[in-house]
Each structure stands twice: as structure tokens, then as C-alpha cells.
Amino acid sequence: MSEQLTLIARLTAKPEHADTLGEALQAMVAPTRAEAGSVDYLIHRDNDDRRVWILYENWRSRADLDAHFEQPYTKALMGRFPELLAKDMELSFCTMVSSRP
Fold it and tell me: With a threshold of 0.85, does the pTM exceed it?
């Protein structure tokens, strides 16, 4: 059995595209949560730097996350990253070591 995978992604928008990036990320919520392997898909905005968006995602397995990256809506958004992002997105892959209450 695979372990659940957590992905924390940090995306820094170009100043003129901060809100546009946020809107594009919000549009990803419903289809991503509908994916069979999606456990959580949460979007956060940094309180100190409004250009920074942080995604907190939990997936049943790495294979489920890989399948997410192959979805047309994910590919479409990632194709816009050169226009929207000030730098490459930062990805942290994690394994939960404590259980939820």
C-alpha cells in the first residue's frame, strides 16, 4: 500500500499577475478535488507578500499526483507559468508523520 503524499507548492507571481494567478488557481480547485486520488487541495495566499500563493495538497499516492499533472486543466495552467510567474515554482514533497485528531 502506498503512503499518502503531501505536496506544498509555492508560486510567486509577477507583480502585475498576482490576482490573475490566484484566479487561475481557484479555477483548479473543483476539478482537482474531483480527481480520485485527491485527498486535500487547499490554496493559501501569503500575508506578507500578496504575490505568493501556496498550495497544500494531499494525494493518496505519488501515482495519483503524477496523474494530476497529466490532466488537461493542470497542463493548461502550467503552460501559462512563464507569463504569470516571477520565478520557478518551489515544490516540497512530504510524508505525514503524525495522524489527524
Answer: yes
Contact assessment for residue 55 and residue 43, using Cβ atoms and an 8 Å cutoff: yes
Model pLDDT for residues 7-61, shown as the tens digit of each residue? 999 999 999 999 999 999 999 999 999 999 999 999 999 999 999 999 999 999 9
Domains of the chain: total: 1
User: What is the per-residue DSSP string for 45-96?
Assistant: E-SS-TTEEEEEEEES-HHHHHHHHTSHHHHHHHHTHHHHBSSPPEEEEE--
Count of alpha carbons within 13 Å of 55, Cβ hemisphere only?
A: 24
CB environment 36-72: b (16+ within 10 A), e (fewer): ebbeebebeeeeeeebbbebebbbbeeebbebbeeee
Q: Nine-digit cell at 62?
A: 505519488
20 in a structural domain: yes
Domain around 71: 5-94
The C-alpha atoms of residue 43 and residue 10 are separated, in whole angstroms, by 10
